[in-house]
Amino acid sequence: MDSRTVRIRSKLARVPYQPQRSHSMGAERHGFRVGPRVGSARVDDFEREHRLVLPPAYRQFLAEVGGSGAGPFYGLLPLEECRLYTMDRQPPDGSPRGFHHEDHPDALRGDRFLHVIETGCSDLCLIGVTGPLTGRVLTGNAEGFRQANVSSARDFLSWYERWLDHMRDGKDNRALGLTSPATVATAPWGPRAADEAEFRRRLRLQRLQRLR
User: Are 99 and 140 in contact (CB under 8 A)?
Assistant: First the structure.
C-alpha cells in the first residue's frame, strides 16, 4: 500500500474536526466521507469497456481509499458515472478550449480525459487517461468559458492530498494549486486536424448558441 493512501485516510478522518477547516462549496454535501472501495475486477471491466488504462494513482485511490464521495467541489464521482471527454480545438481567436463528450457528434478525435469530480454546471474536473497529460488533473469548462487549468500535482494522489491539506488549513477550493501554463492553451496535443471550413462553421454555430 502506498504511504500516501494511508496518510489520506488518516487526514480524511481528522479534517472535519479541525477548528480552522474550510467550509468550501460541496464540503457539507459529502461530509468528508468516501464510498466503498472499488475492486480490481470492477476496474478491469471499466477499462475493457472504454478501451483505456486508468492512471495508477487514480486506480490506487479507488482500491485503497474509496470509490465516491469526499473530494474537491461536490466530490468524487462513482466510476460508473465517469464520462470520457476530448478537448476541443484551439479557437483561431485564442479563446479557451472547451470539451465534448467523446460520443458527441461534434467531438474531435484526440487525447482522452475522464470526468472524475462533480463541479456543477458545465465545469469539468478531469484526469488525463491518454497523451502527454496522462495522470494529471485538470479543470475546465465544457463550453470553453474559461481557460483549462492543469494541476502542478504529479498525480491524482498528490492532488487529492493537497486538497485535504488545504481544507485543513482553511483554504478554499480555488486554492488547489492549479496552474495554467501558457503552453496548455496552444499546445499541439489534443484533437487532430479537421477540415477548416467545417471547423469554422461549427465555431460560428457555437457562438450563435451562446448569444441566445
Answer: yes
